[in-house]
Task: structure prediction
Amino acid sequence: MIVLDKTNKVFTLHTQNTTYQMKADQYNVLLHTYYGPRISGGDLSYLIQYADRGASPNPSEAGHRRDYSLDTLPQEYSTCGVGDFRLPSIEFEPEDGSCLADLRYVDYELRKGKYSLEGLPAFWGGSEWETLVLRMEDISTQMQVELYYGVLDRYDLITRAVRVTNLGTERVRLRRCASLCLDFQDNGDYDFITFDGCHALERNLNRAPLRPGVQSVESVRGTSSHHHNPFVILCDHSAGEDHGLCYGAALVYSGNFLAAVERTQLEHNRLLLGINPYHFCWTLAPGESFTSPEAALVCSPSGFGQMSRQFHRAIRDNLIHDPLRGRRRPVLINNWEATEFTFSAEKLVDIAASAAPLGIELFVMDDGWFGKRDDDCGGLGDWYVNEEKLPGGLEALVPRIRALGMQFGIWIEPEMISEDSDLYRAHPDWALGAPGRPRTRGRSQLTLDFSRKEVRDRVYADIRKVLDSAEISYVKWDMNRSLTDVWSAALPASRQGEVFHRYILGVYELLDQMRRDYPHILIEGCTGGGGRFDAGMLYYTPQIWCSDNTDAVDRLRIQYGTSFCYPISTMGAHASAVPNGQTGRSVSMETRGVVAMTGTFGYEMDLNETSQEEKEVIKRQVAFFKEHYDLIQNGDYYRLTDPFQNGPFTAWEQVSPDRREALVSLVTGTVHASAPFHTLRLKGLDPALTYQVNGGDTYPGDVLMNAGWPLPIILDDYQPMQLYLSAVQ
Ligand code: GLA
Result:
């Protein structure tokens, strides 16, 4: 609900459990007055205190009033060069070369429904949303800044985006345009939580108290990256899973980003989230606009668990475009880890044939089926079937797979080009790269200049021929390197600062096109595993390959970190052969299955090489997953332990929305002799209901949540356990 106090220019956004407020003051400076647990309202500007602070200057309208400074007041969208020395939200440069932005509130607009952002992913939905637009302007340059707010009451979700329009008469260069600025003026003793890592070990949770100055994570790789995720949390020092105030902020964007927090001289905190200003410069001719990506905020007064569940619901219901919405997604088998580039049609059919009797429903043919692609040095860009491997093309292969009762899926990497490809020989200038400089290879490949429409069109035309040649139900859209040599032959020198962003806009445009042209195809995102696991990609690809690391033990951490923002139904997870290729570790098929089914669930191995006993295990896992699909994929998710604590076990739980069913899963850590007994307290159950556990004895919900469940002593490392609970009355 949005409440306006027009006289005092106070704008209050209420969600079910939170309240957010701004106010334009007597100088039309837009102040941020509150964000936190839901309150009744009123004008919260009484919280703001004024004092003369040395070295903090005063705007001219304030005259000699030295207690009024932009440097100390909580700003809704911070400016630069005119008195606020903290992190700026915006920087622009008119032709005189100045870099001054003095934004003042002009007017507002209230709309039913959700705003949309042309060419950019954004949360969507109907009348359950409300939109507020606040217009501000820098009088000298006539740069207009519109702040967009979307309010989704039931999920405590507030989205923000910014549109900058040049209303003046000369060209302006926009050098920075954050999606979100959030000032906290309550001296909160906050921690900053980020999700960091590297290829094959993504989204490790890192938590540190704020210290004076700026602390940040960012990506300048052209992707949101394996290294830092564009989702961060600010929280009370004492906040935990089930208690304490926390604020989660996700950027709905897949390119370079910056997430920064500044702890100021007055021990206030400012959070900034948006496109990274590194090599960003967007020229706005008179009348032109630039739209920032969207940022999404959830505040939880009761810990991380509630924050995550609200993000999960909102992402599932109001962000992803799932062609199978309301239906079960197929359990898949992928040939990558089994064959890499070396396979024949017979081999693929063999793998599929070994999977079909176990209940596996989709066969995915990974990298290596096209062009001259026998290793990772060639072929990218040549999107036609390699008939030496697959005689007769997909027209011959796909019916054989379908005859097994399975769907067929295919791997592509549209953004890439190999130097050893027909496409490169014909169009060497289509790869990103500055004239006269050698090009930097990544995984032995170059990147296509996706900021150019003719490049995207050509690649898509070739891919369409493949998609049209057979019955294809699934596409894995991969992207296997960070961007370098970011320079486009299609833009003048003055506009090279637009290439990073234009590249990702090009990716979005093509994904959107494919989604619309093939509305029945499920697209899985992938970037060398989880290098672009972000809310932007999820808009187009309802699931994303979480990591190239399929080791079940490492996955406990990767999937735990991922779950802080992103739902289980988005996390690509497969059980693979052991010893694991990334870690050399061997764990049981039971453990691999329990971990992988806390994701989209599939297998990535040649089941012909699997023992009969393991096949029986797989058959049971697949049947169990299908039976409890809704609970596992769409249930409310509870983290019961933190795998980074190296405790005796890692446990998590899904609870159905009506709380009549729950699934508890657990994997032990490394065992020690004379182990103590442990009791696991469950969460999210209905205290008044009685639950039957694994078809056996019954226990009241309040007992299971407070007294808990005694865990047996399990010998051997990394053993799994699952408890299925169903209400009996
Ligand atoms: C990336 C993906 C893998 C696989 C390979 C194929 O690494 O993450 O799953 O598709 O590419 O080259």
Summary: The domain at 638-727 is CATH 2.60.40.1180 (Immunoglobulin-like).
